[in-house]
Amino acid sequence: MLNETPRRSTIRLTRRGRVALLATGAVVAAAAVAVPLAVSGDDGRPTALTIPEGWRSGQVYDAVDKALALPAGTTKKTVPQAGLKLPGDAGGNPEGYLFPATYPLGAKSTPKSLLSYMVNTANKRFGGGQATTAGADRDTANPYQSVIIASIVEAEADNKEDMGKVARVIYNRLDHGMPLQMDSTLNYGLGRSTLDTTAKDTKLDNPYNTYVRMGLPPSPIGNPGEQALKAATAPTQGDWLYFVTVKPGDTRFTADYAEHQKNVAEFNKIQGQAKKDG
């Protein structure tokens, strides 16, 4: 995931080759995807809409438009007038609170009713915004920040079993005064989803560029599920500062930079062999 260890007083950008840049967790796809709808057998109208874990708000808005057969952009325009019960820190931005679940659709369903349903569900599942953070500095992780961390965990973790460790890496880097250096946050700020991040990208002046900006991004970068929030509020204990998914199901966490470099080298070797075989 990371290739340098900045000290508390300085931020040094990572220097990774193109292939090594793939060594982060799974990045949530922001590209167009099929909307998960349940359709009745009578008139063909959808009866339910499923929001997958990790979807960004834009994806949710598009899905609601399609589910309700509305012109593109209708749901997004509804947000400012929807009266959503968001925390003050959100500044009216529902990102992070459009809870991933399956929602029923009826003749009276509207963008406002669906978005309200999602936000109200998030508030219930997230403990009414009263989440506490175990094993981290409570002064630096309020409930809204916990949702931000959960969204990063959702985007970066290769599997649900590793979510607690990814969360711990985030807290450890914050505690050590290190930038997070997460491709998932950078890509969110650029409105894209890709594993092909360049050194030039990591230098961009963007509030979500955690290569050059210290601390957490200004908002969640997607809509996390319960397990990701659990990881963010009760991270696994450990001293890890780095992680790399060498291959699916094999994410390696370490506090030692040299060991991390070896893991990245193994990842690159596997990727190189896969290209030859392909």
Report on the structure:
A hairpin with a 6-residue loop joins strand 1 and strand 2 (46-50). Mean pLDDT is 83; it is low at 3-32 and 129-139. The chain is mostly helical and 278 residues long. It folds into two domains: 20-29 and 136-277, no CATH class; 37-125, no CATH class. The chain starts with 36 loop residues before the first strand and ends with a helix. It is built from eight helices and five strands. 34% of the residues lie in helices and 8% in strands. It is globular, with a radius of gyration of 19 Å. The longest helix has 21 residues, at 257-277. The strands form two sheets. Strands 1-2-3 form a three-stranded antiparallel sheet, covered by helices on one side. Strands 4-5 form a two-stranded antiparallel ribbon. Helix 4 (143-156) crosses helix 7 (226-233). The protein has helices at residues 57-67, 74-78, 111-125, 143-156, 163-175, 183-189, 226-233, 257-277; strands at 37-39, 46-50, 102-104, 242-247, 250-254.
